[in-house]
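Saturday, quiet lab. Running sequence design on the structure tokens for the scaffold JK sent over.
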């Protein structure tokens, strides 16, 4: 394990010198280079305040929904819905997991935010999510007996600001680290995987093709869900062959580039067995459906489809063509990424519930 603590003073004087530095413990098998902004050093008081704000319904227009409504710990901080339900309607996209967002350089399905501080504002003010100006939420918090003293402790002032709310939420979210699955224990030589699970891992990490005169079968999963760094996600955006025409522009809604239409972030596969349904619009209910898509149903004529989802385990073939046994093996491996301690850790739970 390695420890990392934020450093640096908030330019507006919001980081009091008497706040307690938070020591962030980084699992040894995950990247050790993390980016904690110098203007938002992590403190014990800031993290605990962020935890309360994460579960605070006053930040929503109706006072009935919090960040934790859509990001539920028991589901690895997703919600089990195909598309997220806001206070005034249904979002066109599903809720993404918050596991290991400390390392993510792009956030949301389309990369609309590049820092957790930026991202925290979006669901609060989105009409299809919590639907309230952050300024209104700040006013509500200011009128409570609970929050002004907590902001004093965390940021040196009992006057609550939008920036301080966003910083506290980001501090808490940076603590949501998941790295204690059976796969992690296997990597750290603390436990075994079965033969089926190891076969699935090999398929996950192999490209199909000829190597030294032998044809190697593979699932080419690691291209979009990078396994080398242990995060099983990617900062890039991909068209994975779901559609020929796009009702959701995806990354293009941010960049304005037509070549980005239908491209979305590859979410982390950590705890993937807990985060159904799958894809940006929740169209697949099970991991079996996901594997069937990649094996047999990729829309090869989708404009800008990623070439890696067009590889085949049949020489000269036009689809990935996994066998039923190979699909079972890959799914068995994916289930080893479930971290039961992450979904029960009291540090991440709703502080307002007993």
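Result came back. Writing it out in full:
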């Amino acid at each position: 394990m390695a420890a990392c603590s934020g450093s640096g003073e908030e330019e507006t004087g919001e980081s009091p010198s008497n706040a307690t530095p938070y020591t962030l413990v980084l699992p040894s098998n995950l990247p050790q280079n993390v980016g904690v902004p110098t203007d938002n050093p992590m403190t014990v008081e800031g993290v605990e305040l962020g935890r309360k704000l994460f579960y605070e319904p006053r930040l929503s227009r109706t006072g009935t929904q919090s960040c934790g409504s859509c990001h539920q710990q028991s589901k690895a901080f997703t919600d089990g819905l195909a598309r997220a339900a806001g206070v005034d309607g249904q979002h066109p996209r599903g809720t993404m997991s918050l596991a290991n967002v400390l390392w993510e350089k792009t956030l949301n399905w389309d990369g609309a935010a590049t820092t957790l501080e930026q991202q925290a504002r979006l669901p609060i003010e989105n009409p299809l999510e919590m639907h309230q100006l952050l300024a209104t939420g700040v006013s509500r918090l200011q009128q409570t007996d609970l929050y002004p003293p907590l902001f004093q402790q965390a940021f040196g002032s009992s006057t609550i600001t939008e920036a301080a709310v966003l910083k506290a939420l980001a501090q808490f979210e940076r603590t949501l680290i998941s790295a204690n699955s059976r796969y992690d224990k296997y990597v750290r030589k603390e436990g075994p995987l079965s033969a089926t699970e190891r076969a699935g891992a090999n398929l996950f990490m192999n490209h199909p093709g000829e190597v030294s005169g032998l044809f190697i079968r593979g699932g080419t999963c690691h291209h979009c869900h990078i396994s080398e760094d242990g995060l099983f996600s990617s900062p890039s955006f991909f068209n994975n062959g779901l559609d020929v025409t796009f009702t959701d522009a995806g990354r293009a809604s941010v960049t304005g580039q037509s070549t980005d239409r239908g491209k979305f972030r590859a979410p982390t596969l950590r705890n993937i067995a807990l985060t159904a349904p799958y894809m940006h619009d929740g169209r697949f209910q099970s991991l079996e459906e996901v594997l069937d898509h990649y094996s047999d149903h990729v829309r090869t004529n989708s404009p800008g489809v990623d070439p890696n989802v067009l590889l085949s385990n049949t020489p000269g073939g036009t689809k990935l063509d996994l066998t039923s046994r190979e699909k079972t093996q890959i799914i068995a491996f994916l289930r080893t990424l479930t971290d039961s301690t992450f979904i029960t850790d009291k540090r991440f739970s709703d502080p307002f519930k007993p």
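Notes for JK: DSSP finds eleven helices and eight strands in the chain. The radius of gyration is 21 Å. Ask whether to fix the surface positions before the next round.
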